[in-house]
Design goal:
The chain is α/β, with parallel strands linked by helices. It has helices at about 25-30, 70-80, 100-110, 120-130, 160-165, 180-190, 220-225, 245, 265-275, 295-305, 315-330, 345-355, 370-375, 395-405, 425-430, 440-450, 465-475, 490-500, and strands spanning about 5-10, 35, 55, 85-90, 115, 145, 170-175, 195-200, 210-215, 230-235, 260, 280-285, 290, 310-315, 340-345, 385-390, 410-420, 435-440, 460-465, 480. Helix 16 (about 440-450) packs parallel to helix 17.
Length: about 500
């Protein structure tokens, strides 16, 4: 099912965890001409949008006036009538306290076609992430979703407190923190047991989720004491007592920790996803950007002569991908390397080689140039041609050592790393970081130069290896943790070990 011009898609983005976005929501975001989005959408939800798509924020900001609902509706109608494909992206589900019904009615009245794409609603997801099943064979055979904050312009409440107090199951209040004391008093006054278990879940399914449990009568005081704030969900019912045996999210090893990822944007997503899976709040602050140089004369010459090299050394996953891109541009493929010994600086580089159909002949145990030099000791290269394909600014340890052994070495820069301008929102978020990860010397130099005195001084620095660590110290910073294996897996292991102390 594809996206259609002139149609508005009312799309639920889920409660906050990017992994809970539906396949259909991601498909529509990727194809839309324009996306109108709210504040509480998952981090990275718009990353898949087209580069030429218009992204329009129409949500509420604390302390700022919200865009009137009528204006949002008018914009949706105008965009659809202009023949654009339109996504209206909302947190949670558009038809569960999301005003999607109102927007759908406005579109129908204007003669604009629309479709609804449901999302995972917070009432179910946040409760589950807190270890609270909203129904349970022994405790609750029914669940009611209730607004905890009604439209202030209503003349009188639409909530039947007597019926809610008598409801034989779980009550889940959305947007209920501000009026928690009043709502709890109303339920107790109508006959709900003040000793019934209850919970407040702040930022449910997000990396910063916090949960407070108490009783209906004491929850408001507990929420105030723990400074639980919006967005938060209130769960009232015997199922809330199940949390002790079922909580899982807040037990993850990096839950509540903020980790800055400084890798190039194209590489950061895998590391960031792994860290989020471990419970961390991730701030992506790429310090470098990869600029390919495969159109250069030296690269074209190396590709043309690739069959003449006795040894081909690749020093990064980026280099592997770009070498094969250059080969493809010349009408060649992996068979061009059939006569060469192929060396990779580490398992990450070797894995990318394997994806291109090449099994590396040499992979050192330590992932630095010095170790690759040692690993190549048994390879006959005297008087033979060697290709070292790498970044422009890489160290000369490897080519110098190979030349000393009598090889004719061609050093070819497939790419260069350049400083990435920091996103100011990410810089602000990084100030509260527990950890900053560095995966290369270039990430250290570029980030410290870009941030200056805004570098998060209280964060513990995690370095991928000794070369990167030396650059950290040259920048006047302290290395708290250094990976024993000089790759991303080693860096993750070192960070986890440090966090477990």
């Amino acid at each position: 099912m594809s996206i259609r011009p002139g149609v508005v898609y009312l799309v639920g983005a889920g409660p906050g965890d990017p992994g809970l976005m539906t396949a259909r929501s991601l498909e529509l975001i990727a194809a839309a001409d324009v996306v109108y989005y709210d504040r509480l959408i998952p981090p990275g939800a718009l990353d898949g949008a087209r580069g030429d798509a218009e992204l329009v924020y129409v949500g509420k900001r604390p302390g700022a006036p919200a865009m009137p609902q009528e204006e949002i509706g008018a914009r949706l109608v105008e965009a659809a009538r202009a023949g654009r494909s339109v996504v209206r992206l909302k947190g949670g589900d558009p038809f569960v306290f999301g005003r999607g019904g109102e927007e759908g009615e406005a579109l129908r009245a204007a003669g604009v076609e629309f479709e609804v794409v449901p999302g995972v609603t917070a009432g179910v997801a946040a409760s589950a992430y807190a270890g609270i099943p909203v129904t349970h064979r022994d405790d609750a055979s029914a669940v009611a979703f209730v607004t905890g904050h009604e439209d202030p312009e209503k003349a009188e409440t639409a909530l039947d407190w007597d019926a809610l107090a008598a409801f034989p199951g779980t009550l889940v209040f959305y947007m209920g923190v501000k009026r928690l004391g009043e709502n709890a008093a109303a339920l107790i006054g109508a006959g709900r047991d003040p000793e019934q278990p209850a919970a407040a879940i702040e930022r449910g399914t997000w990396s910063g989720q916090r949960t407070v449990t108490a009783t209906l009568g004491t929850l408001a005081a507990a929420v105030e004491r723990e400074a639980i704030g919006a967005p938060a969900l209130i769960v009232i019912g015997d199922v809330a007592a199940r949390r002790e045996g079922l909580e899982w999210l807040e037990r993850r090893p990096l839950h509540g920790r903020t980790v800055v990822v400084t890798r190039a944007r194209a590489q950061a997503s895998g590391l960031a996803a792994t860290l989020r899976g471990l419970g961390a709040r991730v701030v992506e602050l790429p310090a470098i950007r990869i600029e390919p140089r495969i159109e250069s004369a030296e690269v074209r010459a190396a590709v043309a002569a690739v069959g003449e090299y006795a040894l081909v050394c690749l020093t990064s996953p980026n280099g592997v991908d770009l070498l094969f891109e250059a080969l493809a541009a010349a009408g060649r493929d992996a068979r061009a390397l059939a006569g060469a010994t192929v060396a990779a600086i580490g398992p990450g580089t070797a894995r990318v080689l394997a994806r291109h159909g090449i099994v590396a002949d040499v992979v050192p145990e330590r992932f630095v140039a010095e170790a690759l030099v040692e690993a190549l000791a048994g390879v006959a290269i005297e008087g033979r041609r060697v290709l070292v394909a790498r970044a422009a600014e890489a160290r000369d340890v490897l080519p110098d050592a190979l030349r000393e052994r009598g090889a004719s070495v061609d050093v070819v820069a497939l790419y260069e790393t350049v400083r990435e301008a920091p996103d100011q929102d990410a810089v602000a978020a990084a100030q509260a970081a527990d950890y900053v990860t560095f995966t290369s010397s270039s990430t250290v130099r570029n980030l410290t130069e870009a941030l200056g005195d805004r570098f998060p001084g209280s964060a513990r620095i995690v370095s991928i290896g000794p070369i990167t660590s030396a650059t950290v110290r040259e920048a006047g910073l302290e290395v708290a943790v250094e990976a024993e294996r000089y790759d991303v897996e080693g860096l993750l292991g070192a960070l986890l070990a440090d966090a477990a102390r």
